[in-house]
Design a protein that fits this description.
Length: about 900
């Protein structure tokens, strides 16, 4: 019997084919094969949410190959990933095959496996089932909701809030979290407090520190010493007192290991301990899941990496416990296996936690078979998994109370210490923490009640101020989204990527900072669509989606209820004027846009004309603050900057950003948007003489450009100096292909745009000499970085740096890498997909030209038939589409 098995990736297909043998043909779908077209009407609420699906252009050829294989097969087995997305891919493939009439009477089976190992695959094949309709319904509901929100709300933003890119059901709520935290930081008022620390010694001479815990019968918390006068009085009282131990209490305690990783906890811990962004963590985990070559066989090293579950299979627990007993001894092995439950809201525990497929494959053993980042992530997963079944750590928490008497006041001090008496799981692994504090290293000396103590130096009295809550790191935002039940583990990394790509947030010192554009979008949505960016509302939708997948709700009923209210909210904004939007934003962002003045005067009064009212304005280069008396008063400043900025310091209503004046000539320097992108200009045209202009280099932000930056660009080309051998000038400049230095007709690239403005004569001479040496050595293209052989067609695949950007090469196919793909981290599997997409679009070697047909004697042409109306219309539509 010949069976066709469908999986997502070619790497999985190749591995599984080896496990199953010649009776099976394993083909890859390369992920999703259909999606909703990015246009109105793809989800039609008027037709009971009928959804139009479009086959991905790159998937057409693969689907044709699958259809051909299925027509000659005895059975079709759908073996995509074991989650909602995997179920959806299987459903899409099956629907396309039915449309192509590739299926006759062949049985269709759905199998799932949690790990790519031979035993897991063979066991899965023995337990086939049908496609889970409820899971597919939950996918359809989620996809429809995301589409309806994105394609209904985004156009509203484009019309009412120029410069906004998009809105999304989960994306906008995640953005609100970042913006709310920023607003909380801005509203924060620091509070003064003082700490008092006494440095004491026991009768044996052992020293330790103690802090004031109460005074005159009142307990003192961290903020209860509010000023210097109070602190000075307490300090004097302590220094005038006799100190004696009043009580010593030692309590044993236990610290339990953390559960094995879920998708979100893996992203959080990899961010804290390894510095990986969530998206990078998922890329590396995917490669560990798909496997590496071990003894001539590709083996998956970890279980499926998109999961909410924290439990492990009984055989995996037994293997881990056996490893602990042999490697660490019986003292580190609990009497019975540990059981874990998920604390996160809306968690689904259908799958195992992320764990090694075989715990006996130690990180040290695997290091030589993995790339550095893969090895580090595997070690993290391995240690967390093993530690999760180890014995608890035992600690002793000691509290020493100290009485200070003789000063006329009753004052108590307290010293605390925690000592690990048995390390347990800490011998292998300790969970990372955002605060980076460690209270397990303080040990107090031996003391007993009644022991006299003496001060070894003056009491320390230190002033402090409370600090605002920290901005979210990517890991902290993922954790918060999980706590609130917003989104699903598989969406977190993508959501964060979208927020950065849309320029709604930026990463600064590994913390998420909202951009002005992001704050405006959030303010707009909270002003006019507040329900749809509420945390509870978004979480309740997730709960409904989970109920759909559990057969508890009808998916179209959920969509109908959502759409009724959402459509009303959208209709309510149709007659909104931009002035109304701006006033709502002025009110919502008031403390940020119009910070209070020190003298208490109205922060919205124009500082230039004195009678105009400041307001948010929307320009081509983004939002800014301007005067209501424009054009008579041209005062502007950037959003979020301090009041009192210079006239014309931001984008004006005419779309030109006035950066300032050239200090040498007094000529106005402006930033403009041209046919080929943003550029800076010095002055205005005079008769037929064009003003000096310079395009912004790649990577430079128009929004962040300063006058100094513009003047540097306008001063190019920059004279570096005279060549010591020829005496001819060397110039630095930025050209079509990037930064360079030139000398006597020779050009040599520089490493960065910034180097154009600082490169010295010695460096320039050396760069030009290196270029001449390379040119003399030959003009052959560099060999490129080898990624490996094509898994199905053979032949090497390499990645190169080309004239028009990085590309991958396989045979005669040269395929440009998509925007945003890093050639340095490109994997073989990713390269195969790029090559396949190029081949599907007709790229590669040119077809051999056919020999010309022998000429025939001319014959009289028959009169052309007039096409029928229907055919003519179809032809016209086709021509228009082409």
């Amino acid at each position: 019997m010949h069976s066709v098995v469908i999986v997502e990736s070619p790497a999985k297909a190749k591995t599984i084919n080896k496990y199953l043998g010649s009776d099976y043909e394993v083909l890859a779908s390369y992920g999703h094969v259909r999606d909703l077209p990015a246009k109105d009407g793809s989800v039609d609420p008027e037709a009971d949410f009928h959804m139009l699906w479009e086959v991905d252009g790159r998937a057409s050829q693969r689907l044709n190959e699958i259809a051909r294989a299925v027509k000659g097969a005895d059975k079709l087995i759908l073996a995509t990933d074991p989650d909602r997305e995997g179920e959806a891919i299987s459903w899409h493939v099956l629907e396309v095959l039915r449309q192509k009439k590739a299926l006759k009477d062949q049985p269709v089976e759905r199998v799932v496996f949690n790990a790519i190992t031979k035993q897991s695959i063979l066991d899965a094949m023995k337990k086939p089932r049908e496609i889970d309709v409820a899971l597919v319904d939950a996918y359809l509901a989620r996809r429809a909701l995301d589409y309806l929100v994105g394609f209904t709300l985004s156009p509203v933003l484009w019309r009412k809030l120029p410069g906004a890119r998009s809105a999304g059901r989960v994306q906008s709520v995640a953005l609100r979290l970042v913006c709310d935290r920023e607003a909380e930081i801005e509203r924060f008022v620091p509070r003064e407090y003082w700490s008092l620390v006494a440095h004491l010694a026991t009768p044996k001479g052992d020293t330790f520190e103690a802090r004031v815990s109460s005074a005159d019968g009142k307990k003192l918390g961290r903020l209860d010493v509010p000023d210097e006068a109070t602190a000075t009085a307490l300090k004097a009282a302590i220094e005038a007192s006799e100190l004696k131990v009043s009580n010593v209490e030692a309590k044993p305690g236990r610290r339990n290991p953390a559960a094995p990783f879920t998708t979100s906890t893996l992203q959080q811990e990899a961010s804290r301990k390894l510095g990986f962004a969530p998206n990078r963590t998922m890329q590396l985990a995917q490669r560990l899941y798909e496997g590496v070559d071990i003894g001539g066989e590709t083996v998956g090293l970890i279980t499926y990496m998109r999961t909410d579950g924290v439990d492990m299979a009984p055989e995996a627990i037994q293997a881990v416990r056996s490893l602990i007993g042999s490697e660490h001894g019986p003292r580190y092995l609990p009497d019975s296996p540990r059981k874990y439950t998920v604390k996160a809201k809306n968690a689904q525990e259908a799958h195992e936690a992320i764990r090694p497929t075989d715990p006996t494959r130690s990180p040290k053993e695997m290091a030589s078979r993995l790339e550095d980042e893969q090895a580090r992530l595997y070690e993290l997963i391995w240690k967390r998994t093993v530690a999760s079944q180890m014995e608890s750590a035992e600690v002793e928490r000691t509290t020493v109370d100290i009485a200070a008497s003789g000063s006329g006041r009753t004052i108590e001090l307290r010293a605390t210490g925690t000592v690990v008496t048995f390390d347990g799981f800490l011998a292998l692994y300790q969970e990372g923490r955002d605060d980076e504090e460690d209270d397990d290293a303080r040990r107090l000396p031996q003391m007993a009640a009644g022991d006299p103590l003496k001060r070894v130096k003056p009491v320390e009295s230190t002033q402090h101020f409370t600090e605002p809550p920290p901005r979210y790191s990517e890991a902290a935002l993922v954790k918060r989204m999980e706590e609130l039940g917003i989104g699903r583990p598989s969406t977190y990394a993508a959501t964060l990527t979208v927020l950065r790509d849309r320029d709604y947030v930026k990463l600064d010192k590994k913390r998420l900072v909202p951009e002005d554009k992001g704050r405006l979008v959030t303010a707009f949505l909270e002003s006019f669509f507040d329900r749809y960016v509420e945390y509870d509302f978004t979480a309740s939708l997730e709960e409904q989606l989970d109920k759909i997948s559990n057969h508890e709700l009808d998916w179209k009923e959920v969509l109908r209820a959502f759409w009724r209210e959402f459509a009303k909210a959208v209709d309510a904004t149709k007659d909104l004027r931009v002035s109304e939007v701006l006033e709502a934003l002025n009110a919502f962002l008031g403390p940020y846009v119009f910070p209070p003045k020190a003298d208490g005067s109205d922060p919205r009064v124009c500082p230039t004309c004195g009678n105009g009212q400041l307001s948010l304005k929307l320009g081509k280069y983004g939002s800014f603050v301007g005067c209501s008396n424009y054009p008579e008063c041209r005062y502007t400043r950037q959003l979020g900057s301090e009041p009192g900025g210079d006239e014309g310091s931001a984008a004006g209503p005419d779309g030109v950003k006035i950066l300032g004046a050239d200090p040498e000539t007094g000529t106005e320097v402006t930033l403009r948007d041209g046919r080929f992108g943003p550029y800076v200009q010095l002055g205005e045209p005079v008769e037929k003489e064009k003003p000096k202009r310079s395009s912004l280099p790649k990577g430079w932000s128009a929004a962040d450009l300063t006058l100094a930056d513009a003047l540097k660009l306008l001063a190019l080309p920059r004279l570096v100096g005279a060549h010591p051998e020829t005496g001819k000038p060397i110039e630095a400049n930025i050209g079509r292909y990037g930064p360079y230095v030139s000398h006597d007709g020779a050009y040599a690239n520089l490493d960065s745009v910034e180097e154009v403005f600082i490169v010295g004569l010695n460096r320039a001479v050396a760069v030009i000499a290196e270029k001449k040496e390379k040119r003399g050595a030959g003009r052959g293209a560099p060999a490129g970085r080898a990624l490996g052989d094509h898994p199905s067609e053979g032949g090497p695949i390499t990645v190169h740096a080309g004239k028009y950007g990085p590309y991958v090469k396989h045979g005669k196919i040269n395929a440009t890498l998509p925007k945003g793909v890093d050639p340095e981290t490109l994997t073989l599997d990713e390269a195969v997909k790029v090559v396949a997409a190029k081949a599907a679009s007709g790229g590669g070697a040119r077809p051999t030209r056919k020999a010309a047909a022998p000429k025939k004697s001319p014959a009289k042409k028959a009169p052309a038939k007039k096409p029928s109306g229907k055919k003519a219309s179809a032809s016209a539509a086709k021509s228009a589409a082409e």
